[in-house]
Amino acid sequence: MINSDSLDAQLPVFQALSSEIRIQIMDLILGQNGINLKQLASSLNISISTLSPHVAKLRDCGLIRLEDAPASHGTQKCCYPAMEQLLISLDPLANLAPVILEEIPIGHYSDFDITPTCGLASATSFLGQVDEPRSFARIDHFHAGILWFTTGYIEYILPNSIPVNHRIDHLSLSFEVSSEAPRFNNDWPSDIEFSLNGVSLGIWTCPGDYGGRRGFHNPAWWYSFLNQYGILKNLTINTEGTWLDGQKLSDVTVRDLNLNAQSILKFRFSVHPDRQNARGLTLYGRGFGDHNQNIRMTVEFSPDPQ
Fold first, then answer.
1. In sequence order, what are the beta bridge partners of 168?
2. Would you list the DSSP string of the chain?
3. How many other CB atoms are found less than 10 A from the CB of residue 285?
4. 121-132: per-residue pLDDT in tens?
5. Does the first or last residue of the chain, that is N or C, have fewer Cβ atoms within 10 Å of its Cβ?
């Protein structure tokens, strides 16, 4: 974690993240449990000599670390993420809010109640039996990079890292999602509800469960006849309401939810069986789909006047 109240002190971080190719490098490193320079260069279709200064810049500002790892002949340099959280506190600047960035892996859910069709999979295999809800209770469900179900819910406890005596002003979640059809169906609308701490934030109708081409980041073993990718959505709760991709979804605000440093944040995706379009939900995490990301959370906060 980087925790700083000075913009000047973190100028190297901002400079490192201002490059599209370095963002791509970070994406690849975060999606792997160690990746060597040759693999990075090959994935980006660039030479090692072109890659090296970008890796050095990310290393020097503390975003990644390099370690020696065994290779078939001697050792090789492997890249690893150096942190899971970036916290930049800007309290001296009254017009800017402190921000916390978090990432929640798809498999790190805390509760579920679902019906088939359903399942979950890691980068290497299905986890448990497909269409068996009990597979969601497996101890290795944390490794899931994709999950799907027809009706019911999946719930995540979101990390709450804001300082004591502060309150949340803005909470945003970014995730890749689709409906859930047997195999896939690009025209398969599903009514998906979002809720936080038991309060409904609104319902969105997902247009389909997408296939017909491979998702850009799916592992090689993932079958081509299954769903392949989703839509990247951004859900935001602020002092004016709840928004989905900038369009108002409901009038529920962060003040209605009273979100502060003591709050346990239970976020739920649901598909209710009594809805007109009860056609399931698929969540794509790192290593699956088109966007190679987990659930990304952004939190802005300020001192609590109470």
1. 301
2. -EEES-TGGGHHHHHHTT-HHHHHHHHHHHTSSSEEHHHHHHHHT--HHHHHHHHHHHHHTTSEEEEEEE-SSSEEEEEEES-S-EEE--TTSTTS--EEEEEE-TT--SEEEE-SS-EEE-SSSB-S-TT-GGGGG-TTGGG-SEEEESSEEEEEEE---PPTTEEEEEEEEEEEEE---SS-BSS--EEEEEEETTEEEEEEEE--BB-SS--TT--TTS-TTS--B-EEEEEEEETTEEEETTEEEES--HHHHT-BTT--EEEEEEE-TTSTT---EEEE-TTSTTT---EEEEEEEEE---
3. 27
4. 999 999 999 999
5. C
* CA 133 from centroid of its chain's CA atoms: 23
123-181 confidence digits (pLDDT tens): 999 999 999 999 999 999 999 999 999 999 999 999 999 999 999 999 999 999 999 99
For tokens 């809010």, the residue is: 97
- The answer for residues whose C-beta is within 8 angstroms of residue 258's C-beta and 6 or more apart is none
Specify the pTM: 0.71
- Give the burial string for 145-157 (b: 16+ CB within 10 Å, else e): bbbbbbbbbbebe
Neighbours of 174 (CB within 10 A): 17
Say if residues 206 and 197 touch (Cβ distance below 8 Å). Answer: no
Give the residue among 199, 285, 201, 289 at the shortest CA–CA distance from 241: 201
| Residue 25 · residue 211 · CB < 8 Å | no
